[in-house]
Design goal:
The protein has a domain of about 240 residues: 2-Layer Sandwich (Creatine Kinase, Chain A, domain 2), CATH 3.30.590. It is an alpha+beta fold. Strands 7, 8, 9, 10, 11, 12, 13 and 14 form an 8-stranded antiparallel beta sheet that branches.
């Protein structure tokens, strides 16, 4: 008997029973029957694509990222969050999400604008860190977190959402690295955001990448670029900043922990060959660049890249997965901008020696040690051959005492979190 013959004797009751079957499901936890058309205290989960008794659903763990119930979590994260992101192309440029701090609530404040409610520009930072991965067997890793491809991008995104769903990071490919190499890029964040939340977020990111075999500091090609808001820097401040950076190449290379053609400190890379001769010509060219916040003569691979529309890019820093080293770099940029806003034009833009310029900056830094602790600790260690013990104690004594107390409190003296590990991809401490 075919189907049509069987259907000849169908009645209304049979049809109604068939209609009712579409409402019949199994609970995703207890597997008992649920009639979604009649039963109360049941619900459908889009996340799990199944029906549940409410009480049963409440027994499932919730994802620390999306807060949805899940059958299984890895490190507190559900499978959807672990697979929701992809490695973007090198040319990927999303609309920026500006991260600041709600001072009243001490929470993350997200904005589509880099300006305050009074329409004043706010200084924001954006960080790009190039990382690569060791060729190792899975058994060689410090943990069971194996990050590759889009799984890498997803977990980085999850970490960036770890505080108030802040959505701080995305990942891009980079042709200068190996096939395993990735560039981790942040959305812009303010200085207050960095001091309040940034250290903690990056500390988790770096720990996760290190445990999965990634590195940055020891890479021959990998570096770190930091962007700052053009709108928050006036032309005079920019003129002083450019002059200090390009007239103090040895000091900048010390700070950057890198000498590379990807971030040249030669005057020619900024202003072209025809304007790099006399002091007067050089000053006039820098003034012109500062007025326009753009250099038509600049090489893309100059130390301070003026080509981006809305940011100034510091291309000088070596890559790192050490939180103290990243803190040192951000503190250097913030301190230099503060120094250039407070110091007279003639004290910076002059024909004096590099050491004279550096000494003035170090005096400023000495008066702000608590604000720039990581930078001071680094300089105290790296300038031993240039400055006497007495001089360093005078310049950086407050900062070194602060970090010593921190190390005592954390019980981490003489281990892998030593304050002198700036040159290595090790877990530094948050100061």
């Amino acid at each position: 008997m075919n189907l049509l013959d069987k259907m000849k004797n169908i009645n209304v009751d049979s049809i109604n029973k068939l209609k009712e079957m579409r409402y019949i499901h199994q609970c995703g936890v207890c597997h008992e029957t649920i009639n979604s058309n009649k039963d109360e205290d049941v619900m459908y989960s889009d996340h799990l694509n199944s029906w549940f008794h409410n009480d049963c659903l409440s027994t499932l763990p919730r994802c620390n990222s999306c807060d949805n119930a899940s059958y299984h979590l890895e490190h507190g994260i559900c499978y959807r969050c672990m697979n929701r992101q992809s490695i973007r192309s090198y040319s990927y440029r999303p609309s920026p999400i500006f991260h600041r701090v709600n001072n009243k609530r001490k929470s993350v404040l997200i904005s589509e604008s880099g300006y305050s409610k009074h329409n004043l520009p706010i200084l924001h930072f954006g960080v790009e860190i190039e990382v690569d991965r060791h060729e190792m067997d899975d058994s060689d890793y410090d943990s069971n977190i194996i990050l590759e491809g889009n799984h890498f991008a997803s977990l980085v995104n999850v970490i960036g959402r770890g505080i108030d769903k802040s959505n701080l990071f995305y990942s891009k490919s980079d042709g200068s690295l190996t096939e395993q190499g990735v560039e981790v890029v942040s959305h812009p964040f303010s200085w207050n955001f960095w001091k309040t939340f940034g250290n903690q977020i990056y500390d988790v990111l770096f720990s996760t990448l290190l445990s999965s075999g990634y590195f940055s500091a020891e890479s021959e090609e990998g570096g770190m670029h930091i962007h700052v808001s053009k709108s928050a820097i006036n032309k005079t401040q920019l003129h002083k900043l450019l002059w200090f950076v390009y007239s103090c190449p040895e000091f900048i290379e010390l700070i950057a922990q890198r000498a590379t053609s990807y971030g040249s400190l030669a005057w020619e890379s900024l202003i072209g060959h025809h304007g790099s001769g006399t002091f007067a010509k050089r000053r006039n060219m820098v003034a012109s660049i500062s007025n326009r916040k753009y250099s038509q003569y600049a090489d893309r691979y100059t130390a301070i890249n003026m080509r981006p529309d809305n940011t100034i890019e510091f291309r000088i820093f070596n890559g790192t997965l050490n939180i103290m080293t990243l803190s040192k770099a951000i503190e250097f940029i913030h301190s230099l901008l503060s120094y250039c806003s407070q110091t007279s034009f003639k004290d910076i833009v002059n024909n004096s020696s590099e050491m004279n310029k550096v000494n003035r900056y170090l005096d400023f830094l000495s008066n702000n040690q608590k604000r720039y602790s990581n930078l001071c600790i680094f300089l105290d260690s790296e300038m031993k051959e240039v400055l006497s013990t007495q001089k360093r104690r005078k310049l950086f004594g407050v900062a070194t005492q602060k970090v010593s107390r921190k190390m005592l409190e954390d019980g981490i003296i003489h281990n892998e979190r030593s304050a002198n590990a700036f040159h290595q991809d090790k877990k530094g401490m948050i100061v």
